[in-house]
Amino acid sequence: MQYKRILLKLSGEALMGQKQYGIDSQRLAEYAEEIKEVSEKGVEIAVVIGGGNIFRGLSGAATGMDRVQGDHMGMLATVINGLALQSALEMQGVQTRLQSAIAINEVAEPFIRRRAMRHLEKGRVVIFGGGTGNPYFTTDSAAVLRAIEIEADVILKGTRVDGIYTSDPEKDKNATKFDSISFADVILKGLKVMDTTAFTLSQENELPIVVFDMNKRGNLMKLVEGENIGTVVNL
Predict the structure, then answer these.
(1) Rounded to an integer, what distance in angstroms lies between the CA atom of residue 59 and that of residue 56?
(2) pLDDT for 149
(3) What are the DSSP calls for the chain, one per residue?
(4) In angstroms, rounded to a whole number, what is the distance separating the alpha carbons of residues 144 and 141?
(5) First and final CA of the chain: distance in angstroms?
(6) Which residues of the chain have pLDDT under 70?
(7) Does domain 5-234 have CATH number 3.90.79.10?
């Protein structure tokens, strides 16, 4: 295996599947199955999920809602998604722990770094909910922060496209894909890999990011086995 400990970043939108909002149980089950297969190979897995399928703080702010309130609603949405993934994983016999940056003791453990690392060492999949626990930070920032804290080898960012392109491949047919690219080039070319805060944090801590298509069956396993899937961002 190329990686011993990974942090998998999933967008909330990815959980929608073919729906317009909410959670597609079929898509959720597929993700759980892939995570299970990788976990059974001995890879330690932490997961951060966005909340965009339920609520986005930024879109709430755009309609006149207080940004801080909106972001807190978005954080709670990530906990809902975390509970859904936890349920899907446990239905497949995977031991999991959900840790939240916001105290919701009845449904999730508080985020405690040492406890999270101990769970990983014991082979449990750890899901981090609640973002960073602070408004104005995205779940991309939460993913990078948690990955650094748990000493993950890499951030695997699962998306709908199979890597980073020169422009949006869904809009531009002439867009070409990068197999690998440096942090500096991503910034220079203005490519939207993650938000700037998350990306800079990853760069400063020399933590590579792999952007790949999570919806293609088997891609996650191929990645951890060392195949060249998606686009690698590193120094």
Answers:
(1) 5
(2) 98
(3) ---SEEEEEE-TGGGGTTSSSS--HHHHHHHHHHHHHHHHTT-EEEEEE--TTT--HHHHHHTT--HHHHHHHHHHHHHHHHHHHHHHHHHTT--EEEEESS--TTTSEEP-HHHHHHHHHTT-EEEEESTTSSTT--HHHHHHHHHHHTT-SEEEEEESSSSEESS-TTT-TT--EESEEEHHHHHHHT--SS-HHHHHHHHHTT--EEEEETTSTTHHHHHHTT---SEEEE-
(4) 5
(5) 22
(6) none
(7) no
Supply the pTM of this predicted model. Answer: 0.95
Q: Report domain extents, the chain.
A: 5-234
The pair of structure tokens assigned to 167 is 């422009």
- pLDDT at site 143: 98
